[in-house]
Structures are given as C-alpha cells and as structure tokens.
Amino acid sequence: MSDPHPRHRLSEVLHQPVRFSITAALAAADQLDFGDLRDAVQVTDSALSKQISTLETAGFVRVRKGFVGKRPRTTLSLTAAGRTAWAEHLATLREIAAG
Amino acid sequence: MTTETPASAPSPDEARRLLAEAHATGRLTTAAAGWPAVAVMLSLGTAVSMGTLAMGLTAGANYLVALVGLLAWVLVVVVFQLAVMRSTAAGASRRWIGFIVALFVVYVPAMIVVAGSQGEAVVATCLLAAALMAITVGFAAVEAREARR
User: Fold this and answer.
1) Annotated domain spans of chain A
2) Smallest Cα distance from A69 to chain B, Å
3) Do β-strands B88-89 and A29-33 pair in parallel, antiparallel, or remain unpaired?
4) Residue of A21, A38, A27, A18 lying closest to A79 (CA atoms)
5) Helix (H, G, I), strand (E, B) or coil at A1
C-alpha cells in the first residue's frame, strides 16, 4: 500500500485562510497585541476574535488580558503545541509544493 | 486539539503560494514589532551614555542638573515602551534581557565612577560612556537586522 497523501497531515484548524494568516503572524512573534495582529491579518475585530477562539480551543493560541493604566490590552502568543503544529503544517505544505 | 484534515489537498502551486504568504506575513509582523524595540534601545542607550558623560564631566549643581535630565529621559523611554511596545518579535524578549543586562554591567561601575568624579575622571567617564554607546549600537543593530529580515 502506498504512503497516505500528505494532505492527511495538514491541520484543518490551521488551513483555514484567516487562521493560517493569524498563525503565520504569531509564529514570527513572542507575543502580539490584538490590534497589531488585526492590522497584520487585515480582518475585522469580530472576525479575528472568532478565529482566535477556535485556535485557543484547539490549544494553539494563548490569550492574555490585562491593563496598561486604564486601557485594556489583549496579547496573544502561540503555545508550544501551536508552534509544533505550525511547523508540521509548513513541512507538509513544503512536501506538497515539492510535488 | 483537533485531528481533522482538509477535505481537499492543495495543489503544489497552491502550497507554494501558501508558503510564500506565510513568509510574507511573518516578515510584516517581525518588522512591525521590531522597529519600536530599536527605537527604545537607542533612546535608552543614548540617555544613559550621554547622562554618564554629563555627570562625569560636571560637579555640584551642574551634576545634579545632568542627573535629573538623565532620570527624566529614562522615565520618558520607560513610559514610551509601556505605551507603544505592545508586540514583541520572535526572540526579541531574550535579546532585550541581554541588552538590559549588558547595559547595567557597564552602567553600575559608570555610576560609581561619575559619583566620585567631581568632573575630574574625564578618561574613565569617556570610556564608560563609549562602552554604553557600543553596547546600545550593537544590540540595536541586531534588532534592526531582525526587523528587516
């Protein structure tokens, strides 16, 4: 029997376009402010919140809420599981790209 | 954590496009998060280096004026950092700690020298201020290179 197609190793959670961009941005950072991430991904606040919830539920993203002075601030980062899943996802894409 | 996989496989061209998009998004994010760190490093380094120079070459009331000016600038930089540096590029937290440690390794002896200088320890003051400048420029250059990647 031949090896299974690489697509079976792609994560559905990370493959969705907005979540793919969110994870790509977070992978390049120790942590990102919600507004900075929104600007990088170019989506609305509500769309970003929705996709972050999915990533948080999957255990890929950590959300921290705090205050600087009286202003609320939300910072986001990839968990260790998220970084591992992202690395595997990219490795699989490279495998597919190589044909 | 989900184990679902996409129903349809991306083509090799689509996979290449996604990889390029991931790279571009990462670069954009790193650049956006990196330049504020460069600005804060240069500002803090300039303040402590020039403050050291001013305090080491003066005495009496002039020394106190230089000290107050230095503290004012450090306060401005810290407030700026808290207000503007909201995001951190990958590895920047570790590099920032390295910068602060390296700066203080030189800054503590610098403060000891300038405190007893009375404007006389010109060579030591200049060498210590130059060392603070070199540390700042070195770490800022690394951060700028990372932001341009």
Assistant:
1) 6-91
2) 9
3) antiparallel
4) A27
5) coil
Could you read off the pLDDT tens digit of each residue along chain A, which spans 99 residues? 567 777 777 888 999 999 999 999 999 999 999 999 999 999 999 999 999 999 999 999 999 998 877 888 899 999 999 999 999 999 999 999 987
Domain residue extents for chain B: 34-148
B62 close contact with A: CB closer than 8 A:
no
What are B50-66's pLDDT values in tens digits?
999 999 999 999 999 99
Q: Do B10 and A7 touch (CB under 8 A)?
A: yes
DSSP H or E segment with residue A92:
helix A80-97
Tens of pLDDT, residues B62-113: 999 999 999 999 999 999 888 888 888 889 999 999 999 999 999 999 999 9
In the chain, the amino acid numbered B124 is A
Residues of A with a Cβ under 8 Å from any B Cβ are: 5-13, 15, 20-21, 24-33, 35-37, 39-41, 58-60, 68, 73, 75, 81, 85, 90, 93-94, 96-99
Domain at A6-91, CATH class: mainly alpha
Q: Identify whether the C-beta of residue B110 lies closer than 8 Å to the C-beta of residue B127.
A: no
pLDDT at A11: 87
Distance from CA of A73 to the nearest CA of B (A): 9
Residue B73 neighbours by CB under 8 Å, 6+ apart: B43, B47, B51
CA distance B27 to chain A (A): 7
CA A51 to centroid of chain Cα atoms: 9
- Partners of B27 on chain A (C-beta within 8 Å) are 28
